[in-house]
Write a structure and sequence with these properties.
Rossmann fold; 2 domains; seven-stranded parallel sheet; six-stranded parallel sheet; Glyco_trans_4-like_N; Glycosyltransferase subfamily 4-like N-terminal domain-containing protein
């Protein structure tokens, strides 16, 4: 917990329509900031997954209509900031940063903080990515401080001359005490897994950058092993991925679980967690998996490459390489003692480096600077 309660109020802005790692961080922050500041709330889209979760947790939130290009959005945000007496506006991801900081400046608030969760140019290598990067370049006129969640993002801002305003603050997760929970065998049966099966989980939104197609191709290369895949998450690619699994002849080995609100409940029943991403910052799914000592098989991209050490805390493979993924699966599925040791090493790493108390105090220090300029 923070050493000293701050006298200012904080508004977090997250206008995402889906729920991912950024939303996990926002939910974690707003909960902790209730007692660390004079007050904290979140501006969200009405009916979004984050809005629904915050309501269930009785967390203060301000709702905006779902059209992020709505002409009333900016005036509504400005009113929220002004009437709420917020001195810090911490916006998460591109559209939230653009609208949140513009509204803050119109409300006379200068304590603008931009929290970056992704390398948007790498994640969207098209016009959308170029537009997002352009928005972030323009935002340097409004943001007092930046928070990055990986070394890769921090280095990117430093190359742009923003290193003096950027602070690296990793995501953090609660660390369950040892001994960790046992697998839920009934849940594994729901997935179609036999007791001896090696069950791999991929926890990510179903979109191209997450690399599901390469993992499915890898599964087709290990049909001789008792391996099953559980796809946790939803998104626009689901019909295409289901069709791919069928065409590869592995539909009986792949279970599409859909979106799950309580991922930690599933983790003890997985034998491995895979991230097959083409680009990645520091996904909460990896930290959560490590906190439950799950062996990790990940592509060596972005924050995954800087966080994890191959053969020590994870098995790392090149991105967009189904053959390398298959080799990684084979190694972990046939060397289970080695896999378990990877999991325990990852558990010890997150327990030491990713405490929520340390994350909160660093965030508050950024807020202090944002309002002191």
């Amino acid at each position: 917990m923070a050493e000293q309660r701050r006298a200012y109020k904080v508004l977090l802005v997250d206008l995402a329509r889906s729920y991912g790692g950024a939303e996990v961080r926002v939910q974690t922050q707003v909960t902790a900031l209730q007692t660390a500041t004079a007050g904290c709330a979140v501006a969200v889209l009405r009916g979004s997954p984050l809005h629904e979760r915050l309501v269930r947790l009785s967390v203060p939130c301000h709702t905006l209509e779902s059209g992020r290009a709505s002409p009333t959005l900016i005036s509504r945000l400005r009113t929220i900031i002004k009437q709420g007496g917020y001195r810090v506006v911490d916006a998460h991801n591109v559209q939230s940063i653009f609208w949140g900081h513009l509204a803050a400046r119109l409300a006379g608030v200068r304590g603008c903080v931009a929290t970056l969760h992704s390398d948007y140019g790498a994640e969207y290598p098209n016009l959308k990515g170029a537009l997002y990067e352009g928005v972030l370049r323009l935002n340097r006129l409004m943001a007092r401080e930046y928070i990055t969640v990986t070394e890769t993002l921090q280095a990117k801002l430093e190359r742009r001359g923003l290193g003096g305003r950027a602070t690296l603050i990793h995501n953090a997760v609660p660390i369950p005490p040892l001994p960790l929970p046992e697998p839920d065998h009934a849940l594994r049966r729901t997935w179609g897994a036999a007791p001896e099966d090696f069950v791999i989980g991929i926890i990510a939104r179903l979109k191209p950058v997450k690399g599901h197609r390469y993992l499915l191709e890898a599964m087709a290369h290990v049909r001789d092993l008792p391996v099953r895949l559980v796809v946790i998450g939803d998104g626009p690619l689901r019909p295409e991925l289901e069709a791919q699994a069928a065409s590869l002849g592995i539909a009986d080995r792949v279970y599409f679980a859909g979106f799950c609100e309580d991922v930690p409940r599933l983790l003890p029943s997985l034998d491995c967690v895979c991230m097959a991403s083409l680009s990645e910052a520091l996904p909460y799914a990896v930290l959560e998996a490590a906190s439950y000592a799950r062996p990790l098989l990940c592509t060596a991209v972005g924050g995954l490459a800087t966080l994890l050490e191959d053969g020590v805390t994870a098995r790392l493979v090149p991105a967009q390489d189904s053959t390398a993924l298959a080799q990684g699966i084979r190694h972990l599925a046939t060397q289970r003692d080695f896999a378990c040791q990877l999991g325990m090493n990852a558990y010890q790493m997150v327990a030491v480096r990713f405490s929520q108390a340390a994350m909160l105090e660093k965030i508050l220090q950024v807020y202090d600077r944002a309002i002191s300029h």
